[in-house]
Design a protein that fits this description.
Length: 269
């Protein structure tokens, strides 16, 4: 019998895709010659917000800024634990101006914001497990930023090396299910990092490359409900077998920019 899962209400920060577009290419998914349907993107994004609220989560918004088409990917702008905001320094020059607007929102909300000196892309590469931080590197966030995060947050940071350019952020290859377990795609990581994950999470839910390419690992779990791309059917079934409740939300327009559900969702802890 599958264990009973416990939902915990979350607080999310998002940004409406009013100016969303693929205007440049900074990952293998992005092709500026393939148009984005902005109206469809807004409908899909609104469906995600509605799903969060229907399941009892609070959602707040940052005002989108013209000329920053990737600002919709709120997860990349910061990492928040215990009310401490570890800000961002984007790898791509095109995205660096986003940091100021998110920093401004957090400061207006009463938070102190630490701006890292090294490249760090927020929850894209920093994942809170409830006990420590899993931190990705290899394509965007640097190991030096891992050190900065540990010093600022006061929580252990465990570095993991990503090796597949399609999974350039940790949140495209791994997500936390609850305080005890994770779901991830092993081949996205170096051999040593796979061994670390096996030791930390011997009972983890493992995903296939097909799951990962469908953005199935760019998911958000509240401990019971897993907001997941409907294209990741096999992974959703696997999660259901483990007692979780998949909530399919289609963000296929955002896949064109290399993003999905988690990319659009910053959690404020």
């Amino acid at each position: 019998m599958s264990p009973s899962r416990v939902q915990r209400a979350r607080r999310f920060l998002v940004c409406e895709p009013r100016h969303f577009a693929v205007q440049y290419a900074i990952n293998p998914w992005m092709h500026p010659d393939k148009p984005v349907d902005v109206d469809l993107a807004r409908e899909q994004w609104q469906a995600l917000i509605s799903a969060y609220r229907t399941h009892g989560h609070s959602v707040e918004s940052v005002e989108p800024v013209r000329g920053l088409p990737d600002m919709v990917f709120a997860a990349n702008a910061a990492f928040v634990v215990g009310g401490r905001v570890f800000g961002s320094l984007f790898h791509a020059p095109e995205r660096r101006p986003e940091s100021l607007h998110y920093d401004t929102w957090f400061k207006a909300a009463g938070y102190d914001v630490y701006r890292p000196e090294s490249v760090s892309e927020g929850e894209g590469d920093l994942v809170w497990t409830g006990r420590y931080v899993l931190a990705g590197t290899g394509f965007r966030t640097t190991r030096e930023a891992h050190r900065e995060a540990q010093e600022f947050l006061g929580h252990p940071v465990i570095g993991l090396t990503l090796v597949d350019p399609y999974f350039y952020h940790l949140d495209t290859a791994l997500f936390v299910l609850d305080d005890d377990n994770i779901c991830y795609y092993p081949e996205a990581f170096s051999a040593g990092s796979r061994e670390v994950l096996r030791r930390l999470y011997p009972d983890a839910v493992l995903a296939t490359r097909e799951d990962a390419m469908a953005f199935g690992l760019n998911s958000v779990s509240d401990g019971r409900n897993v907001f997941i791309a409907p294209q990741a059917e096999a992974l959703a079934e696997r999660l259901a077998d483990h007692g979780f409740a998949p909530v399919p939300v289609d963000l296929s327009e955002f896949h064109k920019a290399g993003g999905g559900i988690k990319c659009c969702t910053q959690e404020i802890r």
